[in-house]
Specification:
Elements: H1 2-13, H2 19-52, H3 55-81, H4 96-124, H5 133-160, H6 163-192, H7 197-224, H8 230-240, E1 248-256, E2 262-271, H9 276-294, E3 296-305, H10 310-326, E4 331-339, E5 345-352, H11 361-373, E6 379-386
Transmembrane segments: 32-59, 98-116, 128-148
Pfam families: Cation_efflux (PF01545), ZT_dimer (PF16916)
Domain Cation efflux protein cytoplasmic: 228-304
Amino acid sequence: MFAKSVIALYERTHANADEETKRTGLGKVAGIVGLLSNIVLFVIKLATGLFSGSIAIMADAFNNLSDTAGSIVTLVGFKVAGKRPDRGHPFGHERFEYISGVLVSMLMIFAGLDFVQSSIGKIQHPTADRITFVVLITLLLSIFIKLWQNLFYRQMGDEISSDTLKATAMDSQTDVVATTAVLISAVLSQFAHIQIDGWIGLFVALYLIYEGIQSIRGSVNQLIGIRPSDAEVQKYTDQLSKYDDILGFHDLMIHHYGPTQIFATVHIELDSRWSLDQAHEEIDKIERDFQKKFNVELVGHIDPIDIDDRLTAEVYERLQTIIQEMGGGLHTHDFHIEPGPHHTRIVQFDVVVPDNYPEDDKTLNLRILADLRRYYPNVTTEIDFDHNYLGHDHTVL
């Protein structure tokens, strides 16, 4: 409820803000809320840990300190990521969010390594902790605050499509697990006189290190560039399938330069009898639709298709038979026949090759050409082999 109230208040006070400004503003608000709540948790837990002598509680406190530093980095990250594109960064600055994610993850790892050493010392030389009713209440309160943080970050992350806030929500969820483990240790120490504080502290420390490494992997993968989700690919494919005037499409590529800076390219098949102006108008319409509906900068490449040429249809059918006999999930698109020198024909097409296909491109090229020449001795081939395009082709040829 709190996140929805924050969003509603922001929208009332910034009624004329565009989506990018709104996203940056709400991201900063989320960072400030996280900063304040994590500072409160750190101070309370550190005081409780020092009073009780519990390594596990102190480790959990410094886990919250790393969350505090993370909130600061989140604030800086949203400020930098919200900067407009400039001459040196024509695709914007949104990938800085991923850099801030790496910095937060490193803080988590360093805190974890420090408490591994402290926890091992406590395991080797166990001492009784002063666990009181106030300590137990403090840990329960911490769990409830972290559950609230998880819900807040998740709702804010969904509202502005922020992977950073969604990851922070997951971090709050893992903090609930860690603090619950500390609470179990405190209860056992108080009521069963079982001293496992050092082991719980080690568990929390290793958990911090694990989460930090996983978070770094996620941020680095985003910086390098990862395959978009199947849902995103399907969303764009469904939109392209709605245009009745195009014959088909293939070779969809999607590039993310941040959570909202998305660029895409696709080959769109059109009737070769269309004028250049008509084809350009159709592509422009599709590109405008993608910008308006998805905020995606789409570039459409025109593939003219001669749908009435008898030779084209005949050679295409023969090629499909050859490809099917080869097996392994091969398929083709972007098929053309052009006149070549000395009364020859140049057959141009792309072959989509699955990752696990056993033969290399050169071998495939020679096999396809040899099989085609058995039926059409005067042809040669120009084949592009596709390995990294997204989704399924929707091609007429």
